[in-house]
């Protein structure tokens, strides 16, 4: 959604994007992504993990070098679609919003058989369209961000009028999501299910994001400090996975007693995952590597 908003902001009053913008965004996403993916692959190779050429190609194209990296191929594909989506916003934003919402909802519904492990003929297809890197399952958010970018005042005012209702709806979907996951766990017959985005998860996300926009006049604690992290978020995103793995394995081998203290273990990972990338970025920008900072951290 934020990336869609940024695309609309870049389009400006002309409400159109040229390919120079798209190429620029893709370049500054892809180069750091390829670098950090390669580092992750090398790190895994040092742990005696071996890859075929096809596996490496798939890892780069679908963001499998690290659990979180699917997001970069997803963003690249949405930016490649952005000139077309902006034309659709200009044509009829309501139809675009409704159609992308319906498409994403149907995609999430198709994921339920995959989640509970049903062996259906179309299960592999359902699994594919719900892959994190595939744009179909996320196109509503990008379109929604574009529409917000072009109609900020109108949407802020409308959401502000119903902000408390949106907050209540968020709480309802939050609670419903807990019960939904318990039901899915029972239906699957498993003791644990990997992460998936369900329809209720998406409804909760839509409600809480809309409520956040509706409460735009409220200043949250430490908001300025958090906003300072905004331009550095992509660099943190790229670098944190490697250092989380190193920290977790180090704790496992040298301080295993911390594994019995999950809150402390979690806190250590948060500090490591945030602080080390920020320190690296600070060191880079203050060194001879400053000219290539953008290619390292975006």
Structural overview:
By secondary structure, the protein is mainly alpha-helical. The chain folds into 3 domains: 1-150, no CATH class; 158-218; 220-298, no CATH class. Helices cover 74% and strands 0% of the residues. The chain has helices at 2-11, 19-46, 53-62, 71-110, 112-115, 123-129, 139-150, 152-161, 163-188, 199-214, 223-229, 233-254, 262-285, 293-297. α8 (152-161) crosses α10 (199-214), α9 packs antiparallel against α10 and α12 (233-254) crosses α13. The protein is globular. The two termini are 19 Å apart. Its main location: membrane. It is found in: Cell membrane. This is Acyltransferase 3 domain-containing protein.
H/E element string?
A: HHHHHHHHHHHHHH
Low-confidence stretches: none
Q: Kindly state the mean pLDDT as a whole number?
A: 91
Q: What is the distance, rounded to the nearest whole angstrom, between the alpha carbons of the first and last residues? A: 19 Å
The shape, in one word, is: globular
Q: Total helix count?
A: 14
Main beta sheet: none
**Secondary-structure class:** mainly alpha
Helical percentage: over 70%
Radius of gyration: 21 Å
What is the number of independent domains? 3
Question: What is the count of β-strands?
Answer: 0
